[in-house]
Amino acid sequence: QVLLVESGGGLVQAGGSLRLSCAASGRTFSSYAMGWFRQAPGKEREFVSRISWSGDSTYYADSVKGRFTISRDNAKNTVYLQMNSLKPEDTAVYYCAAEAPPWRSDSRLGEHYDYWGQGTQVTVSS
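User: That's the sequence. What structure does it adopt?
Assistant: Structure tokens below.
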């Protein structure tokens, strides 16, 4: 069982930056692939980014590539999402998720993840 708690959301102007954190409980955090998803009002949840258990492999949605960076610190049981050059269309609730092994090489489907956080709101004003 893994408990995920996101933090770092807030209100920021377009062009600004935020760093989201997702703290995980449990001793097996380093064995999980981690992902970030988001859901805007009236829209379906969408994939944002993913990082392998080791941190060696990262994946991004085209809409955030070059602006967002995912990273993890297994010693701190935490995964991060650095978001730069934010746009109003980035406004959403952001969720972190954990995929237990065996992992898929590049899973962008929420159904492949086993645990979810409660979400943190990110609002980007124009």
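The chain has a mean pLDDT of 95.
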